[in-house]
Amino acid sequence: MDINNKINNNKTRISLYWKCQLIGWSIVSVYWAYTVYTRDNYGIFYTLLNYVLDISIGIFLTHMYRLFALKAKWSSLPIKNLLIRLVPTIILLAVLYVLINNLKWYAYWTFIAGEGKNFFEAIIYWDPILLTGLRLMSIWILAYHLYHYYQKEVVTAKENAQLSLIAKQAQLDNLSAQLNPHFLFNSLNSIKSLVIENPNVARRAIDLLSDLLRSSLYEKDKGLISIKNELALVYDYIELEKMRFEERLQLKTNIDDEVINYKIPTLSIQLLVENAIKHGIDLKVGGGVVFLKVKKKDSDLHIIVENPGVINQHNSVGLGLKNLKKRMEIQYKGHASFSLKAKENELVCAEIIIPMHIDHEKI
After folding, report:
1. Which of 60, 118, 190, 237 lies most in the core, judged by the most C-beta atoms within 10 Å?
2. Is position 228 within any domain?
3. Of 64, 91, 126, which residue sits at a domain end?
4. Is residue 342 part of a domain?
5. Same-domain pairing of 204 and 280
6. Start and end of every Signal transduction histidine kinase internal region domain (predicted)?
7. What angle do CA 91, 95, 97 make, to 5 degrees?
8. Do residues 268 and 324 touch, judged by C-beta distance below 8 A?
């Protein structure tokens, strides 16, 4: 199938090339046909013959150049190196154009019109044929290479776009693959402590975990999830964790209704809440409150999770938050931001800022 496509593509390119050759040189040669008919009285037959010969000369010289340029792979040269080669080539082609046309002119006036012409003088006659040859060969060669340069740039742009898309998707898939086991591991730890002491609650926890995994797996393929659906995952996760923490864990929310349907990267809020519980609530004897705020400020979406705790300056940010930050960089091309800061009264604030004016379809 691929071979057939390549053959068809080559046929298309050759067909286009010959169409351009015939049409281009036919239009250019009209002027000379008009000149020899009105000025030199060639007559209709010889005017048409001269017209065909002019077309043939132009096509012959440029096609010979094309064959040479393809064999020498000039189209793949850098522009500077290509221009160095083109200047003497254009001069050479223009000189050949003069010689062939002068031979044609000499043959007509000597063998057809019957006038005695000096061969040497006929051959070295250059004005205005040389200037015409320089102009025509320059236009043809520059047009030829500009077309190939444009085609090469289009192909390169398409390949780069495809590679960028593949790389972006691979990075996102890789980060999501790391994120889901991280979430599963922490959830199973929460259930483990309930299995013996409270089987009924453990069964409920397993149901919640099953729903969480089902939702996260289905939404993962989409890459983005509405804040409304993401919050449903968060509430299920909090219910799951409250079975272990009981009254030590509280969740307070402040959600702007106008952003409830805006889409964000899957499991981003859930990860912030999970991190707040693991590194904040779990380390406090009395537990604490996780405060979740989602609001629109100017043209940005702010997702804020606050929890009691301190930031350990000796430990680097965990894998989950590193992945979240990387996902934000890839998804929004550096326009979104993530920060984790210590606040007064031993509070830790994690914040995601996403520009809402970005079109997700064009990211």
Report:
1. 237
2. yes
3. 126
4. yes
5. yes
6. 170-249
7. 115
8. yes
- Match 């004897």 to its residue by tokens: 285
Long-range contacts of 230-233 (CB under 8 A, 24+ apart): 230/264, 230/266, 230/267, 230/268, 230/269, 230/270, 231/255, 231/269, 231/294, 233/267, 233/269, 233/270
How much is the pTM? 0.50
**Most confident residue range from 116-130, 163-177, 182-196:** 116-130
Tokens 């659906």 -> residue: 229
Displacement of CA 24 from its chain's centroid (Å): 35
- Which amino acid is located at 268 in the chain? S
206 in a structural domain: yes
Answer whether residue 164 is part of any domain.
no
How many Cβ atoms are within 10 Å of 25's Cβ, its own excluded?
20
Question: Left if phi > 0, otherwise alpha if psi is -120 to 50, otherwise beta: which for 348?
Answer: beta
At 137-164, the pLDDT tens digits run: 999 999 998 888 888 888 778 776 765 6
204 shares a domain with 297:
yes
CATH number of domain containing 232: 3.30.565.10
- The range of the structural domain enclosing residue 9 comes to 2-126
Secondary element (H or E) of residue 303: strand 300-308
Whether 61 and 196 map to the same domain: the answer is: no
Statement to judge: residues 317 and 196 lie in one domain: yes
Q: Exposed e or buried b for every residue in 248-275, given b needs 16+ CB within 10 A?
A: bbebeeeeeeebeebbbbbbbbbbbbbb
Burial of 289 (0-12, 13-18, 19+ CB in 10 A): middle
Whether residue 312 sits in one domain with residue 198:
yes
